[in-house]
Amino acid sequence: MNRVLIDTDILSYFFKGDSIVVDNFKKQLANYEVIEISLITYYEIMSGLLYKNAHKQLEIFNEFV
Which of 3, 30, 41, 59 is a plausible cystine mate for 34, CB 3.0–4.6 Å? Predict the structure, then answer.
């Protein structure tokens, strides 16, 4: 299985809609069967969104994972 690990910064910029990151993310989807995140990335994103009380973004992130 062809997999790639995405870090917190890339994931954060992806969800912010950064056009360069989104385009590169799409290219990675074409090259890899599975995109993974680490538990550390998961908790960094979750804690940031919870701190900001960003319920809609939490929903989107939970659908993503």
Answer: 3
